[in-house]
Structures are given as C-alpha cells and as structure tokens.
Amino acid sequence: MKKQLLNALLFCIIPGLLPFSGEPHIVGKVQWILGGAVGMQPMDYFDTLLHGSPFIYLIIVLVKWGRTDFKLNA
After folding, report:
1. What does pTM read for this prediction?
2. pLDDT per residue as tens, the chain (74 positions)
3. Helix axes 2-13, 42-73, angle to 10 degrees
4. CA dist 31 to 4, 14, 23, 28, 41, Å?
5. How far is CA 26 from the centre of its chain?
6. Cα separation of 52 and 48, whole Å?
7. Structural domain boundaries in the chain
8. If you ran DSSP here, which 8-state letter would residue 40 be given?
9. 58 backbone φψ class: left, alpha, beta (φ>0; ψ -120 to 50)
10. Are 15 and 6 contacting, i.e. CB atoms less than 8 angstroms apart?
C-alpha cells in the first residue's frame, strides 16, 4: 500500500502541478470554474479532468489506505 501512496504522490507532483513556473494549470482551471466558468469550452472541462485526475487518484488511495489501517486496528 505504501508503494501505491508513493506513486500517487509522485503522480500528483509531476503531471498534476505542471507547469512548474508560475501558477499550476489545475489551479487556474479550478478558479475559472469557481468563478462561474464563463466562456469555458468542452475542451476546458476535459483539460480540468485530465489535470485533476492525479488528485482524484490520490484521494482514492488515501481512502483505501485509511480503510485498511482502520480494519487492522479495530
């Protein structure tokens, strides 16, 4: 399970936070959506999903890790 967590973290750091100079792309997309998503095209939503998928994967791994750890300690 630790290997999956490490992979998820690397997956978030490397492709999830691109570009490294300036603001990460996913941050700009989320701000755009929270601001009302005025002018967003279907490609922009797909791009948000693409850049957000590493973080979704990290959440899934953390939930699985927490459930496994909880079952072992119960």
Report:
1. 0.72
2. 788 888 888 888 887 777 777 888 888 888 999 998 889 899 999 988 988 888 999 999 989 888 876 666 65
3. 160
4. 29, 20, 11, 5, 15
5. 8
6. 6
7. 2-73
8. -
9. alpha
10. no
